[in-house]
Design brief:
about 725 residues; alpha+beta; Transferase(Phosphotransferase), domain 1; Ubiquitin-like (UB roll); 14 strands
């Protein structure tokens, strides 16, 4: 029966449909509430027995959706009978059978099946998404099995829906309980249910099964999420699938056809290389898959042993091991000079020395050559002596999908840490080795021919993976060198290297000018030149000239580094945007034209175009080499600045010694001056007092000489001595 909007309820469209029902999307224009309603389609084509069975399942699903608690990972029923009974009556009156319409909470992000069909997910989802979905299913299934005593029996990506929060994060929820059935302890179900590729072998083989069938379906989904395809020859006949499943050994997690002989099947014990999982997580994920995809349902459904589980409620080993897997923290690193991504499982007890050892092992760098750069937005901000590898891990940054990067105001960086080679010599740069599958190698041979759709589709996926990985590596490379340039700029500006050295130059020059004026006044008025001879002045002048030249060179080098860093930030940003906009590897075009299948001729042409040298890659390396030079100049300049500070300290000490000599002599001379002179201090004493107020951290002001007076020149000299010594300690710290 045709339905339309009703009063305040606006019909927005169809969310999905199955063999016997439709799901519609509604929104209340007054309250903003959105709901999903599930309807049975016409059942006249069904036999009487089928209609009875369908109605029984419908009633069961309605009961469960209303009894479920409001859990984050299960789609719950929505009761609006009290708030809007008229709308509920309208829905039921327009139902094709005398059963109530099922009203559910609305999830606005579609389902996981649609997520898998996005081109970028052709070879599986990101590890972050795989973890999120498996974690949600684990919680939902454990609740169904233990609290509700229900076996779902129809797990598949289509029945995992997505709800997007306002901040862009996603919550995954299990839905569609049409095949759910009470499953008390020790009860064995007896019916063939589920969707063909997702139900366990025992369902067909014997018809006797228990909740372990959900563990099998969970394993199938997990493999599909990680690789983008079903594990067990999905395009083969049902008979071939079942026969091979019953023959597989416990360590087998997938069955594929032989590339050379279509009648021969291969039992795979590892994941295909074309996936987006990290190495550490993948190595632990495979043993878990073997457990979930064990054809022996007794082994598959066993409980965790007492040695590893001490909780009050027994937990299936499948869930217990999945929990441990989901708790793993993998630190992602991009080694810029090696042009490759590194991944390490990090724990609270792991030290930076241990992490550094792993990096050296995998990059062949010496320990002293490892230079780490944190992304600008990293919450840890700076590497410190107390930093642990776990501090560098950022869970949110594990979600590297383009969907998340586009929807986030500040996109997460592609990795959590960048590593560079730091050396006084020339840095090496390796080229990235493309990920070429065995199928791609076979299809490159002119003697090889095939028109099998599954092979050509698999070939397209392998080529897509290679292009996507090369694009990601280039983006990581450009992001890394940009972050290094930003860090260099930030370090120069934050530490005020230029301003500090400039202050040293100006204040020292001002101090020497003041001392020269003091000497001139002393010679003119007191004839004290014997106390400060020409050799003292020459030593001071030579030291000052040498130090001033060094300091000005240091300042110029810091300014050069700052200009270069800012130029590199601009150039790498422009190159990054250019590479993304231009799609230098042709990934977008490949997705449009060939992802559903590619001919051998098209594939060979695409490989040839890919091997054509890419100018942008060489430009990126040239930028990185320029930053290498800037960074080395910066390090050398910082070391020179330390030497310059010592030289400035020597000048301050010489100024103090010369000034002290003149003050002591002036004090002796003042004792024999006339009464008039004692009442009006000579200019030399006024200048002495001004020198006493001078600090080496800021420029003096000549106007001070017109207002200062002193009564005790020896006290003034002592005060000046202490001030200059303190000043030197501050500058050298």
């Amino acid at each position: 029966m045709k339905m339309d909007s009703f009063r305040n309820w606006q019909l927005l469209g169809k969310l999905g449909q199955g063999g016997f029902g439709n799901v519609l999307h509604w929104r209340n224009t007054n309250t903003g509430l959105e709901i999903a309603t599930k309807h049975i389609k016409e059942t006249s084509s069904l036999s009487a027995d089928q209609q009875v069975k369908l109605k029984e399942r419908w009633v069961e699903e309605l009961k469960w959706t209303r009894e479920f608690e409001k859990l984050p990972n299960i789609v719950a029923g929505v009761c609006i009978e009290k708030e809007d009974a008229a709308f509920v009556d309208y829905l039921n009156d327009h139902h094709s059978c005398p059963l109530p319409v099922i009203i559910l909470e609305y999830c606005n992000g579609g389902d996981v099946r649609k997520q898998l069909q996005i081109p970028e997910n052709a070879n599986g989802l990101t590890e972050f998404e795989v973890r999120e979905i498996l974690g949600a299913l684990r919680q939902a299934l454990h609740f169904l099995h233990t609290k509700c005593k229900v076996c779902h029996r129809d797990l598949k990506p289509d029945n995992i829906v997505i709800h997007r929060q306002k901040d862009g994060s996603k919550t995954y929820k299990l839905t569609d309980f049409g095949l759910a059935r009470d499953s008390p302890d020790k009860t064995i179900l007896q019916s063939v249910v589920g969707t063909r590729h997702y139900f366990a072998p025992e369902v067909v083989e014997s018809g006797f099964y228990n909740t372990a069938v959900d563990y099998w379906s969970l394993g199938i989904i997990a493999y599909e999420l990680a690789t983008g395809e079903l594990p067990f020859i999905p395009h083969q006949t049902f008979k071939n699938i079942l026969v091979n499943l019953l023959n597989k050994k416990p360590d087998c997690i997938a069955i594929t056809e032989d590339l050379q002989d279509d009648s021969r099947f291969l039992f795979q014990t590892e994941l295909p290389k074309q996936n987006h999982l990290t190495g550490p997580w993948s190595r632990e994920f495979v043993p878990w898959l073997r457990q979930a995809l064990d054809t022996n349902y007794k082994r598959r459904g066993k409980l965790a042993s007492d040695e590893v589980h001490s909780g009050p409620v027994p937990v299936p080993a499948v869930f217990f091991n999945l929990d441990r897997l989901l708790q793993m923290r993998v630190l992602t690193i991009f080694a810029v000079n090696d042009f490759k991504r590194l991944e390490y499982a990090v724990t609270a007890n792991m030290t930076m020395q241990e992490l550094n050892g792993l990096i050296c092992r995998d990059t062949k760098l010496a320990s002293r050559e490892v230079y780490c750069v944190l992304p600008t937005t990293h919450p840890h901000e700076r590497m410190k002596p107390t930093t642990r590898p776990l501090d560098l891990y950022v869970q949110e940054w594990s979600d590297t999908s383009s969907e998340t990067r586009k929807s986030t105001q500040i996109p997460p960086p592609p990795v959590m840490l960048f590593v560079f080679q730091a050396t006084t010599g020339e840095c090496y740069y390796l080229n990235s080795a493309p990920s070429v599958s065995e199928l791609m190698k076979t299809c490159m041979l002119k003697s090889f021919q095939t028109d099998k759709p599954w092979k050509l589709k698999r070939l397209a996926r392998d080529m897509h993976y290679m292009l996507a990985e090369q694009q990601k590596l280039l983006e990581m490379f450009l992001t890394g060198i940009r972050e290094r340039a930003l860090l260099l700029e930030d370090e120069i500006v934050t530490n005020q290297f230029i301003a500090t050295i400039n202050d040293q130059i100006l204040t020292t020059a001002d101090a020497i000018k003041m001392l020269e004026r003091l000497r001139t006044a002393a010679v003119q008025e007191q004839k004290m030149s014997t106390q400060v001879n020409d050799a003292d002045w020459k030593l001071l002048a030579d030291t000052y000239q040498e130090t001033n030249n060094i300091a000005r060179t240091i300042k110029e080098h810091f300014e050069s580094c700052l200009r270069g860093a800012r130029r590199m930030v601009d150039e790498t940003s422009q190159l990054f945007n250019h590479c993304v906009a231009r799609d230098v590897f042709g990934l977008a075009a490949f997705e449009r034209n060939f992802l559903d299948g590619i001919s051998l001729g098209q594939f060979r042409k695409a490989v040839y175009e890919f091997t054509t040298p890419i100018q942008e890659v060489e430009r990126a390396k040239a930028n990185s080499k320029e930053i290498d030079k800037l960074h080395l100049l910066f390090i050398k300049t910082k070391m020179a600045e330390t030497t310059a500070k010592k030289k400035f300290a020597e000048i301050k000490e010489q100024i103090f010694q010369l000034h002290f000599k003149m003050l002591v002599t002036a004090a002796s001379a003042s004792a024999s001056t006339s009464a008039f002179a004692s009442r009006v201090p000579p200019p030399v004493l006024l200048l002495s007092n001004s020198m006493g107020r001078l600090t080496m951290n800021s420029m003096g002001d000549s106007s001070d000489f017109d207002s200062l007076t002193t009564n005790n020149m020896i006290d003034e000299a002592n005060r000046l001595s202490e001030m200059l010594r303190t000043d030197m300690e501050i500058d050298l710290s």
